[in-house]
């Protein structure tokens, strides 16, 4: 009679190659990024200088850089990248996840990182056509579609939508942050665009906000609407944000069968000298989310939380509310330790009915490392779960593994938004 340890060993020997193959071969829908199709040329970020000045690395650079913040920001992109390279890769070992990500990306692109030659790297990237490079990165990452973040309030982005005809590699996401967290400025913008809105919500304000949402949904054809909210977000509450949610956003999303993605827990500008790198994290009160789910059962919500302390409660809510789809390991949770912990917990609580990761990439090259690192973790965790059931006598088939992996890497998300 084989021991329990031998049964687990035999099950792992059979199942791990099947899981590795399924995860390696399944094309990914990267459901939320800050990337753009080539038509948005002024917003498209790619290449070594963009990788090195990504805000994750900027904040790390200042850990050891003895330079006033203003002096750093006066430098051009190349100068900032050179400082980051020197501080994080030459004078210190690049073992943080953000630094390791740069090395993984360069390695997968076929570049020799041992030379530590920044100028040679720049020359290699400069030779690429931007459109071809996007496809190259997507092929290396095995990503078949990229979810964008698109703001109708962004002066740099808005004009492109007048002529943009779409790109099969990209899907739009309608960003609503200014509408929900900065109403006093947004009401002026909407009025300037010809919408009859009032700061006190009188008259046709809510109807006009919905008309604005309808106009931009028609242009973008978004997968979902989205907003990042601070840890202080409360619902129900007597705030402008709540008034707009109740009066316009939630009814509009319900009528359009458009999920609302909530990204909860970001503290903006805890160190404003760091600019985009200066945001922090706080624990959210998920009673607000519970109330939204209870009071708006006909709305669909995609939710990710920034604080580790919120992950378990979010997962429990997903057990209770089928109008909630949990996704991603976002920003400060995007480290191997927390990705593994969070993914394992989610599988144990809700099975394969969530989307474990989105890249949140701001530089196209980043999809390579973020998905390489995620695949490795997902392989280990999912293999463990299949072994757990296999030793009970349950027969885990290759077809079932492929089905589950497809769901986890975008298929479950697509089913949820279509439902």
Q: Largest sheet, if any?
A: 5 strands, parallel
Fourth-level CATH superfamily of the largest domain: Metal-dependent hydrolases
What's the arrangement of strands in the largest beta sheet?
Answer: 4-5-6-9-10
Cα distance spanning the termini: 48 Å
Instruction: Supply the CATH architecture of the largest domain.
Output: Alpha-Beta Barrel
Poorly predicted parts: none
Shape: globular
Overall pLDDT, averaged?
97
**Beta-strand residue percentage:** 5-15%
- The total beta strand count reads 10
CATH class type of the largest domain: Alpha Beta
**What is the total number of structural domains?**
2
Helix percent reads: 40-55%
Q: Give the assembly state of these chains.
A: single chain
Order of helices and strands: HEHHHHHHHEEEHHHEHEEEHEHEHHH
Number of helices: 17
Cα gyration radius (Å): 22 Å
Layout of secondary structure:
Layout: H1 4-25, E1 28-30, H2 48-52, H3 55-61, H4 69-74, H5 77-90, H6 97-108, H7 118-126, H8 130-141, E2 143-147, E3 170-171, E4 174-175, H9 177-181, H10 183-192, H11 205-220, E5 225-229, H12 240-256, E6 260-264, E7 266-267, E8 280-281, H13 287-295, E9 301-305, H14 311-320, E10 324-326, H15 336-350, H16 366-390, H17 398-418
Parallel strand pairs: 1-2, 2-3, 4-5, 5-6, 6-9, 9-10
Antiparallel strand pairs: 7-8
Helix pairs in contact: 1-16, 1-17, 3-5, 6-16, 8-16, 11-12, 14-15, 15-16
């Amino acid at each position: 009679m084989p021991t329990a340890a031998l049964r687990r060993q035999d099950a792992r020997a059979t199942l791990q190659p099947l899981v590795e193959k399924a995860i390696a071969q399944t094309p990914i829908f990267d459901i939320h990024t800050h990337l753009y199709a080539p038509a948005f040329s002024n917003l498209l970020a790619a290449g070594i200088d963009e990788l090195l000045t990504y805000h994750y690395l900027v904040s790390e650079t200042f850990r050891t850089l003895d330079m006033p913040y203003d002096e750093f920001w006066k430098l051009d992109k190349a100068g900032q990248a050179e400082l980051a390279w020197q501080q994080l890769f030459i004078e210190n070992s690049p073992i943080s996840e953000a630094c390791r990500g740069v090395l993984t990306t360069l390695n997968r692109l076929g570049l020799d990182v041992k030379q530590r030659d920044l100028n040679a790297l720049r020359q290699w990237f400069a030779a690429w056509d931007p459109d071809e490079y996007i496809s190259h990165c997507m092929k290396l990452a095995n990503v078949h579609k990229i979810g964008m973040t698109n703001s109708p309030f962004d002066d740099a982005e808005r004009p492109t939508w007048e002529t943009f005809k779409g790109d099969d590699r990209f899907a739009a996401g309608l960003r609503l942050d200014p509408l929900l967290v900065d109403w006093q400025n947004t009401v002026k913008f909407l009025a300037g665009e010809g919408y009859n809105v009032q700061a006190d919500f009188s008259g046709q304000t809510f109807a006009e906000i919905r008309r604005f949402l309808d106009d931009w949904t028609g242009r973008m054809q978004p997968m979902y609407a989205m907003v990042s909210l601070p840890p202080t977000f409360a619902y129900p509450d007597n705030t402008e944000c709540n008034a707009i949610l109740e009066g316009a956003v939630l009814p509009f999303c319900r009528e359009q069968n458009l999920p609302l993605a909530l990204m909860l827990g970001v503290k903006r500008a805890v160190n404003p000298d760091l600019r985009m790198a200066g945001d922090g994290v706080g624990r959210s009160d998920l009673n607000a989310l519970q109330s939204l789910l209870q009071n708006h059962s006909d709305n669909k919500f995609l939710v990710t939380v920034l604080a580790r302390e919120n992950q378990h409660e979010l997962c429990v809510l997903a057990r209770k509310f089928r109008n909630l789809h949990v996704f991603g390991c976002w920003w400060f949770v995007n480290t191997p330790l927390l990705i593994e912990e969070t993914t394992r917990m989610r599988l144990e609580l809700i099975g394969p009915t969530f989307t474990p990761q989105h890249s949140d990439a701001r530089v196209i090259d980043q999809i390579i490392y973020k998905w390489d690192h995620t695949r490795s973790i997902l392989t280990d965790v999912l293999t463990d779960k299949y072994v757990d059931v296999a030793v009970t006598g349950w027969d885990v088939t290759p077809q079932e593994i492929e089905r589950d992996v497809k769901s986890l890497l975008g298929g479950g998300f697509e089913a949820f938004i279509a439902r």
